Amino acid sequence: MATPIRVNGQSMVAEPEGTLYWPEERTLVVADLHLEKGSAYAARGQMLPPYDTAQTLVRLEAVLRRVKPERVICLGDSFHDGRAGDRLSREDGKRLRTAIDGRDWLWVVGNHDPAPCVTWGGRAVDDVVIRTLVFRHQAAAGAAAEVSGHYHPKAVVHVRGRRISRRCFIGDGRRLILPAFGAYTGGLNVLDRAIARLFSGQVVAHVLSGNRVRALPLTRLAPEWETEQKS
């Protein structure tokens, strides 16, 4: 079940898969696909199962079928590295082209993909400005009224004596950071200073839990006891 989110006066919908939908603009926003991360690790000798791209695209296709957006904004790090597009299988490339066809598809540049592959369609852009919002890869210090990705935010909660970690949106009404969508993406605790310093006022984590999105204040969340690097 999706949940409404307001960002700088605009009404959005946080989807349980981790995407953001803007009904008035018929726009779907997704962050950090990291396509071909598995093959990048395999090239360095870390043999991950080579199915992350297919899994990520299948999940994205399901969202596209449901919300039927006219515009899609990918918030950077859509490809895990500059050669990821070359490693995409023919089947996954066809799947991506079909998803893009007929839509205004915008590849925002990220730190992993400063020159996103546009072989299958879409346009590479530094950022996107629509109404009162800026869509960019990484939140800009001191800025507001923006939607971004990059940090792969996650929330840790205590449930019946267990610590459970889930991907989440994090926002304060003016700024929103999306969870990573890619199959092999890790996460950074929203209580980490790298994320916490970006927000002020009433900060809420919209936590993905099965087919639901649950809004939780930071007081309900737990810190990360073990150091974890963001992928």
Can you walk me through this structure?
The protein has 231 residues and is α/β, with parallel strands linked by helices. It has helices at 37-43, 52-67, 84-87, 90-100, 193-196, and strands at residues 3-7, 10-14, 20-22, 27-30, 71-74, 104-108, 123-125, 128-130, 133-135, 146-148, 153-159, 162-171, 175-177, 188-189, 204-209, 212-217. Strands 8, 9, 10, 11, 12, 13, 14, 15 and 16 form a nine-stranded mixed β-sheet that branches. α2 (52-67) runs parallel beside α4 (90-100). The chain is globular. Mean pLDDT is 92; it is low at 226-231.
Structure summarized in a few sentences:
The chain is α/β, with parallel strands linked by helices and 231 residues long.
Number of helices: 5
Report the radius of gyration as a whole number of Å.
17 Å
DSSP summary, beta strand count? 16
How would a crystallographer describe the biggest sheet?
9 strands, mixed
**What is the CATH topology?**
Purple Acid Phosphatase, chain A, domain 2
Provide the number of structural domains.
1
Shape, per Cα inertia axes: globular
Q: What oligomeric arrangement do these chains adopt?
A: single chain
